[in-house]
Design a protein that fits this description.
Elements: H1 12-37, H2 42-50, H3 69-145, H4 149-157, H5 161-169, H6 173-181, H7 185-199, H8 206-230, H9 234-247, H10 249-258, H11 261-273, H12 275-289
Length: about 290
């Protein structure tokens, strides 16, 4: 028995679903896949758009919203540009620092050169002054050598030892001897010692003569002080040596060295009698042994 199949009719909804929606959905999905394959971030765009929907945004995490390759590339470029800008800024800062250091070094170099130039100029000026002074001394010495020794000696005796010594130094030995022979013996002796010691250093250096004169004056004061203390009673002499040692140890020791051994022993014995000054006596004795 032949059965006749009746065609089933579709409703409008079914017709829309099967005829329009499914083919359209298939086409969209296929197009999205093809676009994704060609580098378009279709999934990211779709997730971004769906993330804006109030209810669906809770179902799609923010991590799923990816940027497109072009956006990623732009971000990388921006980062590189920012890094390059930062490096350029740092380089500019370093260049400024280097330039400042160069300028500072140049200023210091200029200052050093100026200082050296001033020192050279000062030295040259001082040398010229010394030369002129030596010329004046020689010219003045010629004036006294042109006189008789008997007239020149009294005049030079009234000069300071430094001035007289400078004049005698530039004279010839026979002229110097003739004038000093007419001088007071003590003055002549002091000048002889002064000239002897100075000639061993530099006869053209007035400073050497002046320093030697100061040494002679110091030694003369030592001898005079030693002679004065030697004439005192041991008790008074010990008191004076104690005070002198407290103010100038070197001078006190030199004074004691100028005395005779017996006088020196009496002063030290006087100091040692007092327990409070026994240590001082021992200290002075030790220094006397080392001089």
């Amino acid at each position: 028995m032949e059965e006749i199949a009746e065609e089933r009719s579709y409703s409008r909804l079914e017709w829309f679903f099967y005829i329009i929606f499914i083919p359209l959905l298939f086409t969209l999905v296929l197009s999205a896949i093809i676009a994704q394959m060609f580098g378009y971030n279709v999934v990211g765009i779709l997730a971004k758009e769906l993330n804006k929907v109030p209810v669906i945004e809770k179902l799609i995490p923010d991590a799923a919203v990816e940027r497109s390759p072009s956006e990623k590339e732009e971000t990388k470029t921006d980062k590189k540009d920012a890094k390059v800008t930062d490096l350029e800024t740092r380089l500019a800062v370093k260049e400024r620092e280097v330039n400042e250091l160069k300028k500072k070094a140049e200023r210091e170099n200029q200052l050093q050169q100026q200082t050296q130039s001033q020192q050279v100029a000062t030295k040259a000026t001082q040398e010229q002054i010394d030369i002129e002074k030596q010329k004046q001394i020689k010219n003045l010495a010629k004036v006294y050598t042109s006189m008789s020794a008997g007239k020149a000696a009294p005049i030079m005796e009234k000069m300071s030892p430094e001035e007289a010594g400078q004049l005698l130094l530039v004279m010839k030995p026979e002229e110097r001897s003739a004038i000093m022979a007419k001088m007071d013996p003590k003055t002549a002796a002091d000048l002889t010692l002064l000239l002897k010691e100075t000639s061993l250093t530099d006869s053209n250096d007035p400073g050497a003569l002046q320093q030697r004169l100061l040494d002679l004056k110091y030694n003369a004061s030592i001898r005079e002080l030693a002679a004065s203390i030697s004439s005192m009673q041991p008790t008074n002499a010990a008191n004076l040596i104690e005070k002198l040692f407290a103010s100038d140890e070197r001078k006190a020791v030199l004074v004691l060295l100028q005395m005779e051994a017996g006088q020196r022993g009496q002063i030290l014995s006087e100091l040692a009698k007092d327990k409070n000054r026994a240590t001082l006596a021992a200290k002075i004795s030790q220094k006397l042994l080392t001089n």
